[in-house]
Design goal:
This protein is of the alpha+beta class. It has 2 domains: 181 residues, Triger factor/SurA peptide-binding fold, CATH 1.10.4030; 111 residues, Chitinase A, domain 3 (Roll), CATH 3.10.50. 61% of the residues lie in helices and 13% in strands. A hairpin with a 2-residue loop joins strand 1 and strand 2. The protein starts with 6 loop residues before the first helix and ends with a helix.
Length: 369
C-alpha cells in the first residue's frame, strides 16, 4: 500500500493552482511587453527629438510663409553642390548665414513681384536653364545645334541627379534667381553712370611689422611731390618692400584701381576723404585682426564714368538697401544663432558622407547613345 495523501486531493490542489499560475504568466508577459514598449518609446522619442524636431523648427517666416531648419540645410546643400558642379567653391562657414538671408530676401521679392509688375514666365526659366547647362563655346565647336541641345539636356539631367533635387525644386530656385535679377536691374536704374571716384592704393602689414619705418620712408619719398603719377610710383615702391598682401597685389604695388562710394563700404571712411598722396592712419583688417591696412589715394575725380563691373556692384548694393527697407513693410521673423549654425553645419557634414546616388536610368540611356 502506498502512503501519503490521496491522489484526488493532489489533483484538486493542482487544479486550484493553475488559474493563479496563468495570471502570473499573463502579468509577467504584460510587464515584459510594457517594458518593451517603454524602451521602444524612449528610442522613438529620442529619434524625434534629435532627428525630426530640429528639421521642423522654424527659422524664417515672411507674411505666413514658413521655412524650417530642414529647408535651410537643403538650400545650403544645393548651393554647395551646385557650386562644385559648376567648378566653383563654396564657403559653408559664411554660406549658412548668407543662405538664411537669401531665404528672407527672395521670399520678400516673390511677394513683391506682382505689385511691382515683375513676373517670371516658364519660357524664361527654360531659357535660363538652357543657358546655364549649355556647353561652353570651345566644347560646342563643330557640333550641330541638335547635338548641342541634346548635350544641354544630358548635362541638366546629370545636374539634377548629382545635386539630388527634383526638377520642380530646381525650377523654383531658377525662378527666384531670375526674379532677383529683374529687381536688381529695376532698382539699379537709380545707379548713375558718373560718380566721384578715387584712385586707391593699399599696403597690408602684420601687426608686428615695421610700420613706423614704412611711414617714414613713404613721407620721405613723397616730399615736395604734387603729381599723381609720382605719388603712385612712390607708393608702389614702398608697397613692394613692406606689403604682405597677395602676390599679385604686391606686384601691382597695392593698386586697387578707381573706387566709387559704396564699393568698399567697410573701409570707405578710412580712405575716401584723404588728400591725394596722404597716407591713412593704421586701419585694422576686419577679416584678419593680425593685419593692418594703410591706404593712399593718388588722385580724385568728381565725375568719372563708372565701369560696368562697378555699376553691377552698386546695383547689387542698391537692391540690398531696397530689400532692407522693404522688410519693414512685411511681417518678417528670422532667427540665427550658434546652435542653428552648428546644427546645420553638422547636417552638411553628414550629407557629405552619404553614398553616391544611384545613377538616373534615363541618364544612363542618354549617355549610351
Amino acid at each position: 500500500m502506498s502512503s501519503g495523501r490521496p491522489l484526488s486531493v493532489d489533483k484538486r490542489r493542482v487544479a486550484m493552482q493553475q488559474p493563479v499560475l496563468r495570471r502570473r504568466q499573463k502579468l509577467t508577459i504584460g510587464l515584459l511587453g510594457l517594458s518593451f514598449l517603454l524602451v521602444v518609446s524612449i528610442f522613438v522619442a529620442g529619434y524625434i527629438v534629435v532627428f525630426v524636431m530640429p528639421h521642423r523648427e522654424l527659422v524664417v517666416k515672411v507674411d505666413g510663409v514658413e521655412y524650417t531648419r530642414g529647408d535651410l540645410v537643403e538650400l545650403v546643400r544645393i548651393r554647395q553642390k551646385s557650386s562644385e558642379f559648376m567648378g566653383g567653391t563654396f564657403d559653408a562657414s559664411s554660406g549658412i548665414f548668407e543662405s538664411l538671408q537669401l531665404m528672407v530676401e527672395n521670399e520678400v521679392l516673390m511677394q513683391m513681384g506682382p505689385s511691382q509688375g515683375i513676373f517670371v514666365s516658364d519660357e524664361e526659366i527654360d531659357d535660363q536653364i538652357a543657358l546655364i547647362m549649355r556647353p561652353e563655346k570651345q566644347m560646342a565647336l563643330g557640333k550641330s545645334e541638335e547635338q548641342i541641345v541634346r548635350e544641354t539636356s544630358e548635362r541638366h539631367l546629370n545636374y539634377l541627379n548629382t545635386i539630388q533635387i527634383d526638377e520642380p525644386t530646381h525650377r523654383l530656385l531658377v525662378q527666384k534667381a531670375i526674379l532677383r535679377e529683374k529687381f536688381r536691374q529695376q532698382v539699379g536704374e537709380s545707379v548713375p553712370f558718373l560718380a566721384e571716384q578715387v584712385h586707391l592704393f593699399r599696403i597690408v602689414m602684420p601687426q608686428t611689422g615695421e610700420m613706423d619705418i614704412m611711414q617714414v620712408k613713404y613721407e620721405d619719398a613723397i616730399r615736395d611731390i604734387t603729381d599723381p603719377e609720382q605719388f603712385q610710383l612712390a607708393y608702389i615702391e614702398i608697397a613692394r618692400e613692406f606689403s604682405v598682401d597677395i602676390p599679385e597685389k604686391v606686384r601691382l604695388g597695392g593698386d586697387m584701381g578707381w573706387i566709387a562710394k559704396g564699393v568698399i563700404p567697410d573701409y570707405e571712411r578710412d580712405f575716401f576723404l584723404l588728400d591725394p598722396g596722404e597716407l591713412s592712419d593704421p586701419v585694422k583688417n576686419k577679416d584678419n585682426h593680425t593685419q593692418t591696412f594703410f591706404f593712399m589715394i593718388s588722385e580724385r575725380q568728381p565725375a568719372k564714368e563708372l565701369s560696368s563691373d562697378v555699376r553691377d556692384e552698386l546695383k547689387s548694393k542698391a537692391l540690398q538697401d531696397w530689400v532692407n527697407s522693404e522688410r519693414s513693410n512685411h511681417d518678417v521673423y528670422a532667427i540665427f544663432n550658434s546652435d542653428i549654425y552648428d546644427w546645420v553645419f553638422q547636417q552638411l557634414r553628414l550629407s557629405s558622407r552619404a553614398p553616391t546616388p544611384t545613377p538616373d536610368p534615363l541618364q544612363s540611356i542618354l549617355n549610351s547613345r
